[in-house]
Design brief:
Rossmann fold; 2 domains; 8 strands; two-stranded antiparallel sheet; 232 residues; 9 helices; single chain; alpha/beta; globular; 15% strand; six-stranded parallel sheet
């Protein structure tokens, strides 16, 4: 019986506005590079996995300024290569810095509040687990998510990022449930699916882009409200 649902934040409950790929297109135009929004949208799957694996190898927040600049340039290069765009490391560094300083906000997906309200009304414990370099709580407050959540875990405060088992174990302790009594929903296969499965939590991959149509080793949904049939 499922008693708790853990949720990723970005691209699971909310998305950037403007979208990341739209901001990338604008930054690339400054370098006279024409980019395809759809190609960049799917390239972010590769970029996000690269970020998670690199962070596991050497925590990004532990790197000095020079190592951080190097990582950001390499990340941008990997991201753009996945979209079919080849740039030098120096050019990638410029693009990343431009992107980093673009303005953005957050918007909830339309299925989020109704789904969380339904789960909460059935007594399901709800927890947020986010890989982020700052406390994610203010974002949750602005999006009106906080009243619907029993706890919020920001990786920078826990001292571990998904897929590290420690952040999932912390969630289990706060929820007061066993691994087999929890689901974890997230959009990144490596960080969310691999991480949850590593501690015995059933993973659910939310694939809003339809990028994992051939995936068959875990539950896959395209909307958050689809998870209710696995919980209620």
């Amino acid at each position: 019986m499922i008693r708790a649902v853990f949720l990723d934040m970005f691209n699971t409950l909310c998305h950037f506005h403007p979208l990341r790929e739209e901001r990338q297109v604008h930054c690339l135009a400054e370098e006279n590079i024409v980019a395809n929004v759809d190609a960049l949208r799917h390239a972010y799957l590769k970029g996000d996995e690269h970020w998670a694996r690199e962070n596991e190898r050497w925590p990004i927040n532990d790197r000095d300024a020079e190592a951080l600049r190097q990582f950001h340039a390499e990340y941008e290069q990997v991201l753009l290569a996945a979209a079919g765009i080849e740039v030098s490391l120096e050019q990638a560094a410029r693009i990343y810095q431009h992107y980093h300083h673009t303005e953005w906000g957050l918007l909830l997906y339309d299925d989020v509040l109704p789904t969380l309200e339904q789960l909460r009304s059935r007594g399901i414990t709800l927890g947020l687990i986010s890989n982020i370099d700052r406390d994610v709580t203010p974002y949750c407050n602005n999006l009106k998510l906080t009243p619907l959540l029993d706890f919020i875990l920001s990786s920078c405060l826990v001292g571990a990022e998904k897929p590290d088992p420690r952040i999932f174990q912390t969630a289990l302790e706060l929820a007061g449930v066993l691994p087999e009594e929890a689901l974890h929903v997230g959009d990144q296969y490596y960080a969310d699916v691999t991480g949850a499965r590593g501690v015995g939590i059933q993973p659910v991959l939310i694939d809003r882009l339809g990028a994992y149509l051939d995936l068959n080793d875990c539950i896959r949904v395209q909307r958050l409200d689809e998870i209710t049939k696995y919980v209620l």
